[in-house]
Design goal:
Layout (H helix, E strand, L loop, with lengths): L2 H19 L1 E3 L12 H5 L5 E4 L7 H18 L1 E9 H9 L6 H6 L12 H9 L4 E6 L9 H7 L6 H26 L6 H27 L1 H6 L3 H20 L4 H23 L4 E5 L2 H4 L18 H5 L1 E14 L5 E3 L8 H5 L6 E5 L16 E5 L3 E5 L1 H4 L2 E8 L6
Parallel strand pairs: 2-5, 2-6, 3-4, 3-5, 6-11
Antiparallel strand pairs: 1-8, 6-7, 8-11, 9-10
Helix pairs in contact: 4-7, 8-9, 9-11, 11-12
């Protein structure tokens, strides 16, 4: 057989294998819990499900993840949703969610990237169900308005006015510096000398403030525990630790900052799973590039998914989301068109599934001639535009694939 005929035969066999082994969903807008029943067997022994996305500005990914979480909550007992957003903002919002509208719960917790019509049903569900909890694992502030004071007011402890004032001062100084320094990081420019000098002075003030807050918090430790407030106490400890680390690295070089951020997010996820909610099943919402479980990033460091302890990795299912064509939004909201994936890319193989949305499990697949692309270096389209090579089975346990995507409807 001529070489090109042999290659075409292998390609055709790979396509047929994808068709035979993938599960399809005909409509995201009409899919219900029964459409995800195939996941019950796949996830039956897993405590942590990582939900990736191939970009933050994709309406269909948010719709899919919202429906998935509904299924995981009602059918499989997952009761914690951990977002790639501020630990402080998400925990505080969840703690006082009875006092917030759905829009407030969403706008004061997660980054504005997910303040969309597509995620609104998820936040409605979180608000209406006390046992469904929202938490964040990022050390960056994800809202311009801190709810820590509102959280303090909701806790049955008579905090001093000075403690509350210190908390308020700390949060607003952090948010201001995050905004000011972020302007230069966005365009990868060096900070002006006067900005750098001013920040170094405020660093000392902020470190002293956190030290004082740590000391003050310790004085209420017994009262927290006596009143059954163990989780709020350890959260306050963790928040102060996160804020100290955030201040320390805020002015670091872009690559160094990204590396440190993934390290802290990994530490926070370990803490959430082992300390804060040790008996709960947990869903993690993040970008694909953060959840890869065995990779070095473009900046030559491991993302948080690759930094997990062996114990948590064994309890995890890493689920990436990919797309083929259409339009998506950048983090600043501007819309861009996806680039057509090359032949024999992950997106190309998955695009031959007959359904508009499909799922393919890697975790129980044995290598053969028809699926070796899963076990070899294969092109993926990062954000739908940039070619990268990964070994799918080494980085993920399965993928959801959407053929056509569109930008979110921001609120």
């Amino acid at each position: 057989m001529p070489i090109f005929q042999s290659m075409n035969k292998k390609y055709s066999n790979a396509i047929e294998w994808v068709k035979e082994n993938s599960y399809g969903i005909d409509s995201l807008s009409e899919c219900g819990m029964d459409h995800f029943e195939f996941l019950e067997q796949v996830l039956k022994d897993k405590r942590i499900v990582w939900l990736g996305e191939n970009g933050h500005g994709i309406a269909e990914h948010s719709l899919l993840k919202t429906s998935l979480i509904n299924f995981l909550y009602h059918r499989m007992g997952f009761k914690v949703v951990a977002f790639e957003s501020g630990l402080s903002e998400c925990y505080s919002s969840n703690y006082i969610k009875d006092k917030l509208t759905v829009n407030e719960l969403m706008s004061k917790s997660v980054f504005s990237l997910w303040k969309t019509e597509e995620t609104l049903p998820l936040f409605q569900q979180i608000k209406e169900n006390d046992d469904l909890k929202l938490i964040g694992f990022d050390f960056q502030p994800s809202s311009k308005e801190s709810l820590l004071l509102d959280l303090l007011e909701s806790i049955d402890i008579n905090f001093t006015l000075e403690f509350k004032e210190h908390i308020n001062k700390l949060d607003y100084m952090l948010i201001d510096w995050y905004r000011d320094i972020g302007k230069y990081k966005t365009i990868r420019k060096k900070f002006p000398k006067e900005i750098y000098t001013s920040f170094q002075k405020d660093k000392i003030v902020l470190f002293d403030l956190i030290t004082q807050l740590d000391i003050e918090l310790e004085t209420w430790k017994e009262e927290f525990h006596r009143k059954g407030l163990h989780n709020p106490y350890i959260v306050f400890q963790k928040l102060l630790d996160n804020k100290r680390k955030f201040i320390d690295r805020l002015d670091a070089k872009h690559g160094d900052y990204l590396k440190f951020r993934d390290q802290i997010m990994a530490e926070n996820i370990e803490w959430i799973c082992n300390k804060l909610y040790p008996d709960e099943k947990i869903i993690i919402w993040a970008h694909n590039t953060h959840i890869y479980k065995n990779i070095q990033s473009l900046y030559s460091y491991k993302p948080m998914g690759s930094l997990m302890s062996p114990n948590l990795t064994s309890q995890s299912y890493y689920l990436g989301l990919f797309m083929y064509e259409g339009n998506a939004a950048l983090n600043n909201g501007s819309v861009y068109e996806l680039t057509k994936p090359p032949k024999k890319s992950l997106e190309d193989y998955m695009n031959h599934s007959p359904s508009p949305v499909s799922f393919l499990d890697f975790s129980c697949v044995l290598p053969n001639e028809s699926n070796k692309w899963i076990f070899n270096k294969t092109i993926i389209m990062e954000s739908g535009t940039i070619q990268q090579a990964i070994t799918p089975a080494e980085q993920l346990d399965g993928v959801f694939f959407t053929k056509k995507v569109s930008p979110p409807r921001y609120i």
